[in-house]
Amino acid sequence: MRVFRVRDFEEALAIDAILFPETHQELPEAGNQFWLARDDEGQAVGFASVRPLREASDDSKWKETVFLSRVGVLQSARNQGLQTRFVRARLRWARRKGYKRAVTYVSWDNVWSLRVLVKAGFLPFRPTSYWAGNVTYLEREI
Length: 142
Known about the structure:
This protein is an alpha+beta fold.
């Protein structure tokens, strides 16, 4: 498996439509950066995105923050460490760009994602209700 940053996110959108059909239209937000994973045959099997929050607030803390906004891995490519590799790749990119903090949120029942993020150094900072269910907000210094 290879993980790399892409400028054209059409393949990421295709995977997103399969995994998250109810929300996939929300994906292409301005400023998002995308990573794609390909299997040995060159097929796209996963994607991840990150969004800088510089424009989101006048608060300097948020100007130095990136939001790990989405990860999707097809069933055929799960349990191979892709989510961990996507987290590392996005944090490396954010560090090189001068960001100091990363935030994300995960559905409280998404145990696998929570484990990956906690292993990567993320800690909960404000559990809350959002959308139709509960999510856990996580953050870490970069």
